[in-house]
């Protein structure tokens, strides 16, 4: 099976082509093309993503990336737009959560392709290439399927990105129970806001972790660890962000590397502790970790140490670094599992849902 996937939920325009072969109960993923065009440079000067600019860029970039993806995936030799149908079995597209004007660009592009690429009458009774709507957060979870052995069910997933921080229980494919989530800011949002307070660039996560590495003194718990012992699986990062703000106000000469270090440590302590609490409560076989924040080196090593020491029987699947940020490869993996389960969507039913939740 070949899946074409499209992702435009935020400031990355992404298109991927994934080939999947099933042999004797084992799956082989062959990523034929993984096109990601980041708009960071455009949004950087505004200190965050501007939805209308993102929409305009997606519109401009999608046809360019499609051409490149189909060429690289050797799905079509002589590309012209609109084009004859390449050999794809389904088109997967992110329909939420995210910025609605940005999501609509990907959705409309996908619908347009489905209309232009009718399935040949020989292979079916006519109709369009089937569409699969994908939740962006499912994508962050399923990024872990692309490399190494697949995670086993039941599994716990920690998603930490710019818009979300969630612990999710999955008993089987495409089945999600949210155990807890942030009540205010997401972890990545806190990284971005604290970076701005420290005069660092956007996105803030990589900037903070780079600066924190320059601070060699062990931390002294300068900032609070919100809700760390709340007994549930919810998070809250807004108070931590405000604590940094007040500290900077009262200590304008404070060492910025020390603040970056302390803030990063506080955030990671909460993420690791809550994840460990959930692992203790739910008897899972695997822990899956994904989303932009999980590119953080310290978070990756802290989680892996914690699992090795306290949960040696649980297999840990952290998204490969190159799939932590937004991409369409992860959307293609979900697209495959949904297509296999015949979970297609009628084009008119796919609508952008900015606040879409896992269910
Ligand atoms: O998943 P993602 O690319 O987009 C969303 O779905 O939101 O996540 C982006 C977020 C940003 O807030 C960014 O600052 C954060 O991920 N991030 C990091 C790191 N790299 C990216 N946060 C902490 N440490 C990093 N190394
Ligand atoms: Zn994301």
UniProtKB/TrEMBL annotation:
Highest rank taxon of the organism: Bacteria
The Gcp-like domain, residue ranges: 31-332
Cofactors (names): Fe(2+)
EC supergroup of this enzyme: transferase
Binding site for Fe cation: 136, 140, 326
Record GO biological process: tRNA threonylcarbamoyladenosine modification
Main location: cytoplasm
NCBIfam families: gcp_kae1 (TIGR00329), T6A_TsaD_YgjD (TIGR03723)
Descriptive protein name: tRNA N6-adenosine threonylcarbamoyltransferase
The organism of origin for this protein: Candidatus Giovannonibacteria bacterium GW2011_GWA1_44_29
